[in-house]
């Protein structure tokens, strides 16, 4: 299994459960707040590491208590944090409002926006087997990392969340695009060109649509009791990278990732719910 380089956000999540979302100007009571490590980049790194991936995390944290906790958490999963840097800003925070198994998320990026100019992307990416990226860090950093990956012939996975007006030329450099249904509708048409081998549209209870040179294929969702969908997309991306670097075919990698994402929703908390490899293999056998 090759090295998985994750370039992205590192946050701490503050989550609470609500009976109903507040209207404008309204105050509602939530359940006790839960503080836990998060951020799309860190989530993908942990998801891949829990499934046996050899993971390198590249990201920014604040020189504060939240940053120390986030770094310790990554270390606990044996993730290489050599390229995680601290700055004198607040560590990124995500406020998560849960309602009946679904969620709404507000992100305050903090240190995630403070990337230095001297990061040696050539050195970091050249030894990778795959690179994972998301859109919670400056686009200039993402674009630079993708260009370096293309130069070295390293496949990339890009989760376009939060969705933005991405240049078509940039999207066509990505090997695997992994939007959800909402994000997919906001992407340009006809992006399955250039370096892009597959578009993987995650659709929750409707499974995953795989669009590649052979056409469109729907892979059914896994039937589970959903308790918390936070981090399911990140789990999918991390698991997909593990499967691809392990030599699985595209469709088998999607099935593996689909199983992992489904299992991640059966527990409360993004990283807590992410399954280990033995959990996935047992369920795939069934």
What secondary-structure arrangement, pairings included, does this model have?
Elements: E1 3-7, E2 11-17, E3 34-38, H1 40-50, E4 54-62, H2 65-76, E5 80-87, E6 92-99, E7 102-108, H3 121-126, E8 130-134, H4 139-152, E9 156-159, H5 168-171, E10 176-177, H6 181-185, E11 198-202, E12 208-212, E13 215-219, H7 232-245, H8 250-264, H9 277-285
Parallel strand pairs: 1-4, 1-8, 2-6, 4-5, 8-9, 9-10, 10-11
Antiparallel strand pairs: 2-3, 6-7, 11-12, 12-13
Helix pairs in contact: 1-7, 7-8, 8-9
Structural summary, described in words:
There is one protein chain. The chain has 286 residues and is of the alpha/beta class. The chain has a single domain (3-285), classed as UDP-N-acetylmuramoyl-L-alanine:D-glutamate ligase (3-Layer(aba) Sandwich), CATH 3.40.1190. Helix content is 31%, strand content 26%. A hairpin with a 5-residue loop joins strand 11 (198-202) and strand 12. Pathway: Carbohydrate metabolism; D-ribose degradation; D-ribose 5-phosphate from beta-D-ribopyranose: step 2/2. This is Ribokinase. K(+) binds at residues 228, 230, 264, 267, 269.
């Amino acid at each position: 299994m090759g090295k998985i380089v994750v370039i992205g956000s590192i946050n701490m999540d503050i989550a609470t459960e609500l009976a109903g979302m507040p209207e404008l100007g309204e105050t509602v009571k939530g359940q006790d707040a839960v503080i836990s490590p998060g951020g799309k980049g860190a989530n993908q790194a942990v998801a891949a590491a829990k499934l046996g991936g050899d993971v390198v995390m590249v990201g920014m944290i604040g020189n504060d208590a939240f940053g120390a906790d986030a770094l310790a958490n990554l270390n606990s999963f044996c993730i290489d944090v050599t390229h995680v840097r601290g700055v004198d800003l607040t560590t990124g925070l995500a406020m998560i409002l849960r309602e009946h198994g679904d969620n709404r998320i507000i992100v305050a990026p903090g240190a995630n926006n403070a990337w230095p100019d001297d990061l040696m992307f050539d050195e970091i990416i050249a030894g990778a087997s795959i690179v994972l990226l998301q859109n919670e860090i400056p686009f200039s950093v993402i674009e630079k990392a993708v260009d370096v990956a293309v130069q070295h012939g390293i496949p990339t996975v890009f989760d376009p969340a939060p969705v933005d007006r991405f240049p078509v030329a940039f999207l066509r450099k990505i090997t695997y695009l992994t939007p959800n249904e909402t994000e997919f509708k906001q992407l340009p048409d006809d992006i399955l060109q250039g370096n892009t081998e597959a578009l993987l549209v995650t659709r929750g209870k409707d499974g995953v649509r795989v669009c590649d040179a052979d056409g469109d294929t729907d892979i059914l969702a896994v039937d589970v009791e959903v308790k918390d969908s936070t981090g399911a997309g990140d789990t999918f991306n991390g698991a997909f990278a593990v499967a691809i670097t392990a030599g699985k075919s595209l469709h088998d990698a999607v099935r593996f990732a689909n199983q992992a994402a489904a299992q991640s929703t059966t527990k409360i908390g993004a990283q807590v719910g992410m399954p280990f490899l033995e959990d996935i293999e047992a369920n795939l056998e069934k």
